[in-house]
Amino acid sequence: MSEPARLQCPAAGELPSAAPCDERQPAGRRTASPPPAGPSPIGRVSLPETVLHWFGWTFGCFYSTYRLYDVIRRHPDALDAHSSPGWVAGLSVDHCDDEFEVLIKGQLATYAVFMTIHLVVGQFLHGMALNKVVPLFHALLAAAYLCFTVGVRRYALLLAVALAMFGSSRLRSRPLSWLLVAVLLLGHQQLMLAVVGPDLTHDAENRTYLATVVQMWNLCRAVMFCCDQADQPPALATHDNVVTFLGFVFYGPTLQGPLLAHTDYLSSLTAGGVAAGPGWPRLRRLLLSLARLGGWLLFLEVSNHVLHYHALIYSPEDMHRLFGRWEIAGLNYWAGQYFHVKYVVCYGIPCALASFEGVPTPLPPRCVSWIASYSDMWKYFDHGLYRFMQRHIYRPLCGAQPSAGRRMAASAAVFAFVFAWHGLLPHILVWSVANFVCVTVERAGGRVASSRRGREWRRVLGASLRRRCQALLLAPLFLVSLVSQAGFLTNSIAVSWLAMGEGLAPASACDMLVTLGFMYCGCQVSYDVKRWRQQRARLQRADSKLKQP
User: Fold this and answer.
1) Where does the sequence pass through the membrane (predicted)?
2) Are 209 and 102 in contact (CB under 8 A)?
3) CB atoms within 10 A of CB 546
4) What phi-psi label fits residue 357: left (phi over 0), alpha (psi between -120 and 50 degrees) or beta?
């Protein structure tokens, strides 16, 4: 396999910021005093401007999609080696996306059978008040599932690593636990090769890839347990045992993500399905969620019959010959859309199952088309991973009174973990470094805006003009984030360099101005969506207050 564990591109608010995820402002009367430090309400722009922004961004997305589709339609010879006959109107299907083929399609039937057993037996145990047996059942069922899907030897490695992490938790030392995680991340490939051997068959590669994905998530869950044990909250004192640890680390629905909080899993052991409500309404919600996710799964399958961009990635010489700026833009746009929908399914099914059992779950991934700030991308795409990195990496390194240098060092540590966790590959390094630079620049801009002089300028400019200036300043960063994520989304360093060359070094200054104009429109569209979300949240809070007795 070309990549050990490329799982997600996270989601938004400033990753290295200690600010809470909810950045909405409390309602209140406006005064003439300078705005307070921190995030400010998003201003409005005129209706003609809004129409122009949405038209420009939508036109860019549709036109780049047309250019990508036109290349695929006119050069089918570049796809023949990496596609096969499909079932949609005689079209060929692109089967080169390992995540979709292995993690979703390849596991769907087996996952459905084991998760049905998981839900039925789990609800029976809760109904019989056998909550202490539930973690043992979770660990045993996961063992059966993993032995069936990845093989006994790979499962033995997963179990050995988990037990090693549990042993480190006995020492109640955060640094020691993280040191062990670092060693396991850096040595994972060597460990897997030593256990499995040089088996290069396609089935063995798929099993190794699936085991690697599970291993990366297990390491996050295990070190979360270790850190919680180091802090030793009173609520965790009765759950400090190997059975509960293995039940949490090998919790069936989320073996392949997303990341649940340790305390949320423990709360479900005491409440069971009771916390989520009566059985039939929960079952109805589960079935409706699965039906909706089935529709997105069908969308992914149909899109693989129409846009064969994964197959094109395996022909870098054809990409260099056929692709220009617009084709690269279309590839990047659809890679982002496909990635988002894929993780809506990958995370949606486990979250639906966990919610049925009363386990609190992270927020679903937000559409990447409406997010221009890369710090926002980290907060809102993979909310569970974001919370984990905030709580267990960034904040402990920052300390109680962090300086600017300490914040930057903590951010560097976060993105070093991101690089190692997603896979020690060149395109992951490019993407991680670009993430660090973009988020650091955004935070520096936020510090300037929060200074005394910055607050004075914000008061003078007003909300609308301030929004325009922010979009102008954010447009170049938005461009850098888009071209850097091309290699990550396509799992190709060749695409990464091609996107950077076309996006950051255009043929003329006019091309660059046009590109930045589209980026400006994208930033304004993201502000509109963010503002609408804030308004909806305020209305929901007001409505909930009215309903209170």
Assistant:
1) 108-130, 136-164, 176-196, 471-498, 504-527
2) yes
3) 7
4) alpha
Residue by residue, what is the 3-state secondary structure of 53-110?
Answer: HHHHHHHHHHHHHHHHHHHHHHCHHHCHHHEEECCCCCCEEECCCHHHHHHHHCCHHH
Helix axes 242-249, 152-169, angle to 10 degrees: 130
Alpha helices in 75-201 (DSSP H): 98, 108-127, 134-149, 152-169, 174-186, 188-196
Indicate the domain borders of the chain: 47-101+285-547, 108-255
Q: Given this model, what pLDDT does residue 354 score? A: 92
Compute the distance between CA of residue 154 and CA of residue 148 in angstroms, rounded to an integer. 11
First CA to last CA across the chain, in angstroms? 58
**Is 474 in contact with 483 (CB distance < 8 Å)?**
no
- The residue whose two tokens read 């250019």 is 67
Check if the beta carbon of residue 64 is closer than 8 Å to that of residue 71: no
CA-closest candidate to residue 165, choices 181, 187, 152 = 181
User: Alpha carbon 385 to chain centroid distance?
Assistant: 7
How far is Cα 30 from Cα 60, in angstroms, rounded to an integer? Answer: 38
Q: What is the mean pLDDT of each run of 10 residues along the chain (549 residues)?
A: 40 39 38 41 84 94 90 71 64 76 85 93 84 90 94 93 92 90 91 81 86 94 90 62 92 92 85 59 90 92 79 75 85 89 93 91 88 84 92 90 87 94 90 90 86 83 86 90 86 84 80 91 92 84 70
Q: Which of 219, 228, 216, 235 is nearest to 262 (CA)?
A: 228
Q: How far apart are CA 143 and CA 120, in angstroms?
A: 17
Q: Do β-strands 83-85 and 92-94 pair in parallel, antiparallel, or remain unpaired?
A: antiparallel
Choose among 210, 218, 131, 231: nearest CA to 166. 218
CA distances from residue 342 to 97, 200, 397, 442, 487 in whole angstroms, order as listed: 11, 27, 33, 28, 17
Residue labelled with tokens 């056929």: 322
pLDDT of residue 111: 92
Residue 402 zone, left/alpha/beta (φ > 0; ψ -120 to 50; rest): beta
Query: Does the reported pTM lie above 0.90?
Result: no
Distance CA 510, CA 503 (A): 13
Q: Please state whether 197 falls in left (phi above 0), alpha (psi between -120 and 50) or beta.
A: left
Which amino acid belongs to residue 281?
Answer: P
